[in-house]
Design a protein that fits this description.
Pfam families: ECM10. It is built from 5 helices and 8 strands. By secondary structure, the chain is α+β, with helices and mostly antiparallel strands.
Length: about 220
């Protein structure tokens, strides 16, 4: 009885940690969103170590989806999307219908969350090559089953360079020279590389992140 009570107490204490589930409804289209179908829901959870995991729960019929992919025009794209924010916007991705058919409807979803971990920043879908059939055709294969494998990443907020320490050290050396202290003859880079390198890395990462965000969409 005591053990049962302790277990219930532990579960009640831990349950709030996993109670905050981010649900992402996934929709699809084969005609540039003229008609929209419901594919399923991705549920994202955070564990004790701060890592995220996701599970895809399908709401679409595999046979119906397979027939739709098979009947799509040669120029069609298989598009998926999920709502972003509260303004009616979406993040979306696309792939060729035949690629999904060749992997027996196995989807691979990559979800990127913002720095808070509470909102989706990007969604990518592609056919998992691990499940690719030897058949390179574009028809629904036997034993096809709508499955989603989810990978979740979060965008960590970049730490700002310690510019204040850099300025303090320069000011300290300036005052030391004014009081006749022995001059440091090392080059500027040799003296301040530990402050300059983080700034350069910070600028490179920030620039790469902005370019990646600008290239997303479609």
């Amino acid at each position: 009885m005591i053990i049962s009570s302790l277990l219930l107490t532990v579960v009640s204490l831990l349950s709030p940690i996993f109670a905050d589930v981010l649900s992402l409804p996934i929709e699809y289209s084969l005609n540039d969103w003229k008609t929209v179908g419901k594919l399923g829901v991705i549920e994202v959870k955070e564990d004790f170590s701060g890592n995220y995991s996701g599970v895809f729960r399908t709401t679409a019929d595999a046979l119906q989806l397979g027939n739709a992919l098979q009947s799509a025009s040669s120029s069609a794209l298989y598009r998926v999307r999920t709502p972003y924010g509260k303004g009616g916007d979406y993040v979306s991705s696309s792939t060729e219908p035949c690629r999904i058919l060749q992997t027996k409807l196995v989807h691979n979803f990559w979800v990127s969350l913002d720095t808070t971990g509470k909102a989706v920043q990007s969604l990518t879908v592609f056919a998992d090559p691990a499940f690719k059939s030897s058949d390179d055709g574009c028809q629904l294969l036997p034993q096809s089953n709508l499955v989603g494998i989810v990978q979740v990443t979060s965008v960590q907020q970049l730490k700002s360079p310690d510019t204040q320490s850099f300025l303090d050290k320069m000011d300290k050396e300036r005052r030391a020279r004014q009081h006749g202290a022995e001059q440091d003859n090392r080059s500027f880079l040799a003296k301040y590389w530990m402050y300059i390198v983080p700034v350069v890395i910070f600028m490179l990462i920030s620039s790469a992140s902005q370019q990646q965000e600008g290239g997303q969409g479609g």
